[in-house]
TrEMBL record:
<dbReference type="GO" id="GO:0016020">
    <property type="term" value="C:membrane"/>
</dbReference>
<feature type="domain" description="Ionotropic glutamate receptor C-terminal">
    <location>
        <begin position="47"/>
        <end position="275"/>
    </location>
</feature>
<dbReference type="GO" id="GO:0015276">
    <property type="term" value="F:ligand-gated monoatomic ion channel activity"/>
</dbReference>
<protein>
    <submittedName>
        <fullName>Amino acid ABC transporter substrate-binding protein</fullName>
    </submittedName>
</protein>
<feature type="domain" description="Solute-binding protein family 3/N-terminal">
    <location>
        <begin position="47"/>
        <end position="276"/>
    </location>
</feature>
<keyword id="KW-0732">Signal</keyword>
<feature type="signal peptide">
    <location>
        <begin position="1"/>
        <end position="27"/>
    </location>
</feature>
<dbReference type="InterPro" id="IPR001638">
    <property type="entry name" value="Solute-binding_3/MltF_N"/>
</dbReference>
<dbReference type="InterPro" id="IPR001320">
    <property type="entry name" value="Iontro_rcpt_C"/>
</dbReference>
<dbReference type="Pfam" id="PF00497">
    <property type="entry name" value="SBP_bac_3"/>
</dbReference>
Amino acid sequence: MARSLMLLALAVAVVGCAPVDTTATTAAPTTSTACTKEQLQLTNAGKLTIGTDKPAYEPWFKDDDPSNGQGFESAVAFAVAGELGFDRSEVQWSTVTFDSAFAPGEKQFDFDINQVSITPDRAKAVDFSNGYYTVKQAVVAVEGSEFASAKSLAELKDAKIGVQVGTTSLDAVKDVIKPADDPNVYNVQIDAVNALKNEQVDALVVDLPTAFYVTAAQVEGSKIVGQFSATGGGPEEFGLVMEKGSALKPCVDKAVDALKAKGDLTKIEQQWLGSAAGAPELQ
């Protein structure tokens, strides 16, 4: 009996000291379940809260209603929500002004979508997703006006240019076009558009899809003078904005990357933003 007890104790000791294979229990959650809807840290429990500005302009949104799924950014937002496991009824929209979206501080949204370009300075205050759209800038003028026939950026040096505050379009005017006079800077885009309409500026600089909308629906008799890159480095991209240090970022990145890989982002872009035909390159 004593020998049997000794052997039993030895067997227990051996089992207790044997290495434990933890691979199956520790590796899977970080890749397969960490981004399930139930595990996401959300601003409002059970709802995905998405921010954007108001008015919400075409072609990014339609009928000033982000919740209808129409327009490029509304469609992208719902596609990302779907990748995260949310259906339409579980998405709620919050009004967030453009410049406050990437200002420092706590956010009342899970992510914001509002044509916000990813820049190093903005990334100091907020987190960005991987880019969901590559941006070009465009110059709009009224047909027959002094600068409407410009073929190069140099020909715009003497133009009085209108642009919205806080945008990469403003940076592009200052750093790339470098006009002789400071541009007229407006708090909201519609004021810049109206300045062109009322001949208070010679030209307007906006991103290319917005330029198509301006010429088609906002300023009668206007035309796209041309398009150009805002920076001399890598391409400018729009990113989804999140609070700095957001636990959602890896999951939102994963969702954006999945939509790219499946070709869904390309399809959404083709549907709502169309072609850049008719917008010559300005060098």
